[in-house]
Every structure is written in structure tokens, then in C-alpha cells.
């Protein structure tokens, strides 16, 4: 695997707040944590405020954690380095630590910059007193880099995890990832906002007049759907509509349909039979407990 890919390229994401369509509270928190210090540094300084050293986004998969990180970088005009935790791990001694150092060096060279560690639990598992292996060295290296606040000027750290409970507590102490935001399953009102964003207010794919996004969002079948599940639902309904047209206007009939294909209510009903929540009942209980523990 090329080291450039392992260590993350510097990019400027094209994701904006408009692409997210929900998560108002989390967006507001991120605005104050990262956007406000970048846009209004003098006001922050005058009030004696310090921006959080890092932000951890925790919650179920498919709920928009990566999108949020990209949108923050875009809205603030910051460069963006995205790294999946497992990509930095290497079987050779010392290589993983070197990869961590290089990510931070690349970020300093590209400042102002956001480093986003996805699946950070793979990179920073909870250490035991008796452990002394590669994972301990990687965690120690990451702590060293995070503690270099002065040399890290205008480098912001964001991380995402589905399991904050298995992350080494040292990473979550003040001066490191000292702010944790829960990004949970969307309630019906957020599901409606997400569906409107996915379908561009019902224009892509074109929705038939019998389709009401509010009805879909509040449908009990959508309970515990993530944003990714809703996207899969819309895609499956679109495939159902396409399949129907291909059957009606097949080469055997010597007809070709040239009009607009619209996704109707019956297509969503078919899609609901195939697309189920990716979060199991057992997971739902775990994430409910996670939310309560983070809100204490």
C-alpha cells in the first residue's frame, strides 16, 4: 500500500452544511469549537477563550460523522487530511509510529488544517498495565503529537468512533480530544431533512405526486434508520422504478421508453421490504446507554 495513501492526502472537501441536512445541535457545537476560532480569532483572544484541542464524534455508523468533519473543513476554508485508523497500522516495528508523525508533520506544513481520524478506536485501543506492544507505542506517539500544542499551530484534530468505550482514556483528557459530541440516530424530523437533502427536494430522483417524504420519514419502518440507511432506501426505490420501466419497455416488446422515470409510492413500499435498519436492537440499546453516559 503506498505510504501517501496510508498517511492521508491533503484535500479541500466539497461537502457543505447543505449536504448534511440535519444534526443542527452538533453543527452548532462544531461551529463554536472550530469555525468560530478560525473566523474570529481576535474575539476569542479578547474573551480569553481557548478552542478545544480536539473533537471526538461518537455514535452509530452511517449517521454523518465523516460528512460533518468534511463540512467543518470546507466551511472554515481549512485543508483536510482524512486518515482511517487501521491504515496507519503496520506490521513492521516503528512504521506505525512513523506514519503518525508524518500525518502531523504534513498537517503542520498544510496549516490551517483539520486532521480527521476515522475509526480512531482501532488506532488508540485501551491500554492495559501489562501491555507493551505495538499498539501502546502508537498510542504514546499519538499522545506526544497531540501534546505538541505550540508546534501544532492551527492544526485541529477531529476523530470519529462507533465505540468510545474502548478508546484509551488518555486520548480523551483535556488538551487532546477534550470535547465529545454524540452523533446519533436521526429522529423523524431529521429523517425528513435528510430525505429532502438526498432527493434534492424530490427532484433527483424525480418523485411521483403520490410520494410524500414526510410520510416516509415518520413511517415506523424508518425507526432506527441511519442517514446511510435512508440513502439506501431511496436508491432501492429508484432501482425498483427503473426495473419496472425496463420490464414494460423491453427489447422483446420492441418499445423504448424515452420519457422521465418517476419514483412512486409503490416503489418505496417495495424498497421497505428489502432495506432494513443497519442498527440491530442490541446495538440500539448499546448506543442509548452511550448517549446517556456522554450526556452526564
Automatic annotation (TrEMBL):
Pfam name, any one: AAA
Keyword Nucleotide-binding: yes
Biological process (GO), any one: ribosome biogenesis
DNA damage as UniProt keyword: no
Matches recorded under InterPro entries: AAA+_ATPase (IPR003593), AAA_ATPase_domain (IPR050168), AAA_lid_3 (IPR041569), ATPase_AAA_core (IPR003959), ATPase_AAA_CS (IPR003960), P-loop_NTPase (IPR027417)
Keywords: ATP-binding, Nucleotide-binding
GO CC terms, sorted: nucleus
Molecular function via GO: ATP binding; ATP hydrolysis activity; preribosome binding; RNA binding
Sequence ranges assigned to domain AAA+ ATPase in this UniProt record: 51-187
Family note: Belongs to the AAA ATPase family.
Name by which UniProt lists this protein: AAA+ ATPase domain-containing protein
Organism name: Micrurus spixii (Amazon coral snake)
Amino acid at each position: 500500500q503506498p505510504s501517501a495513501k496510508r498517511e492521508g492526502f491533503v484535500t479541500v472537501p466539497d461537502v457543505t452544511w447543505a449536504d448534511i441536512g440535519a444534526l443542527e445541535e452538533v453543527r452548532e457545537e462544531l461551529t463554536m469549537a472550530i469555525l468560530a476560532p478560525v473566523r474570529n480569532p481576535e474575539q476569542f483572544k479578547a474573551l480569553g477563550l481557548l478552542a478545544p484541542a480536539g473533537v471526538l464524534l461518537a455514535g452509530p455508523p452511517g449517521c454523518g460523522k465523516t460528512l460533518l468533519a468534511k463540512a467543518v473543513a470546507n466551511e472554515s476554508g481549512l485543508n483536510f487530511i482524512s486518515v482511517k485508523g487501521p491504515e496507519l497500522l503496520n506490521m513492521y516495528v516503528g512504521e506505525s509510529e512513523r506514519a503518525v508523525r508524518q500525518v502531523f508533520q504534513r498537517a503542520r506544513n498544510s496549516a490551517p488544517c483539520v486532521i480527521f481520524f476515522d475509526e480512531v478506536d482501532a488506532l488508540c485501543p485501551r491500554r492495559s498495565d501489562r501491555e507493551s506492544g505495538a499498539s501502546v507505542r502508537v498510542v504514546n506517539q499519538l499522545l506526544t503529537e497531540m501534546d505538541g500544542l505550540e508546534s501544532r499551530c492551527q492544526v485541529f484534530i477531529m476523530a470519529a468512533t462507533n465505540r468510545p468505550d474502548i478508546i484509551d482514556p488518555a486520548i480523551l483528557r483535556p488538551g487532546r480530544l477534550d470535547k465529545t459530541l454524540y452523533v446519533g440516530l436521526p429522529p423523524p424530523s431529521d429523517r425528513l431533512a435528510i430525505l429532502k437533502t438526498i432527493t434534492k427536494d424530490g427532484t433527483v430522483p424525480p418523485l411521483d405526486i403520490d410520494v410524500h417524504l414526510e410520510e416516509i420519514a415518520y413511517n415506523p419502518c424508518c425507526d432506527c434508520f441511519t442517514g446511510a440507511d435512508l440513502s439506501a432506501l431511496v436508491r432501492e426505490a429508484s432501482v425498483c422504478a427503473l426495473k419496472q420501466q425496463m420490464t414494460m419497455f423491453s427489447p422483446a416488446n420492441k418499445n423504448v421508453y424515452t420519457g422521465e422515470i418517476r419514483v412512486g409510492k409503490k416503489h418505496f413500499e417495495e424498497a421497505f421490504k428489502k432495506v432494513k435498519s443497519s442498527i440491530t436492537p442490541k446495538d440500539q440499546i448499546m448506543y442509548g446507554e452511550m448517549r446517556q453516559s456522554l450526556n452526564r
